[in-house]
Write a structure and sequence with these properties.
About 45% of the residues lie in helices and about 15% in strands. It is of the alpha/beta class and about 160 residues long. Helix 3 links the parallel strand 1 and strand 2. The radius of gyration is 16 Å and the shape is globular.
């Protein structure tokens, strides 16, 4: 397995790496999300995304961004740990943390050849217009039913409630 630190890139380094990959003619795939509690649905999703090209980069919402999107109490797992867990996966080549609530800006900078999001997003994929305008494509990944961070958190809360906690 590649050294995790090599996979964890700041935004400027990710943009430079994207340029190198473009020169090499690699098919660059990008996806993003909060990935608050990594679960089997995420692993399946990321393996699918990796299968769409040569290199997979994952954008991870920062802690502040997750709080704005999901509300107080989230994320459960901090951004550095979330990024390291994702980087440990074989399917993931690069991880970059971003602070915006929407990923459009980062997608517009990276211009991936393939942008992957879960099928539950339908056609409202943030960054779609950037990708398609530059000849790339958007792929909707199958969703693993019954696997979500929100449902896991709900189960923990319910189990704690039943235990009298």
């Amino acid at each position: 397995m590649r050294d995790l630190e090599v996979k964890l890139l700041g935004r400027p380094a990710m943009l430079a790496e994207r340029e190198r990959l473009r020169r090499e003619g690699k098919v660059f795939v990008f996806t993003n999300g909060c990935f608050d509690i990594l679960h089997a649905g995420h692993v399946t999703y990321l393996a699918f995304a990796r299968g769409q090209g040569d290199v997979l980069a994952v954008g991870v919402n920062s802690d502040a961004s997750v709080r704005r999107i999901k509300g107080e109490g989230r994320p459960v797992v901090g951004q550095d740990d979330r990024a390291r867990l994702l980087a440990a996966l074989e399917a993931v080549d690069y991880v970059v943390v971003f602070d915006e609530d929407r990923v459009d800006g980062l997608v517009g900078e990276l211009l991936p050849d393939v942008l992957v999001k879960g099928a539950d997003w339908g056609y409202d994929v943030h960054g779609r217009e950037h990708v398609e305008r530059h000849g790339g494509r958007v792929v909707l990944a199958p969703v693993t039913r019954g696997r979500s961070t929100t449902s896991i958190i709900g189960s923990i809360i319910e189990a704690n409630r039943r235990a009298g906690g």
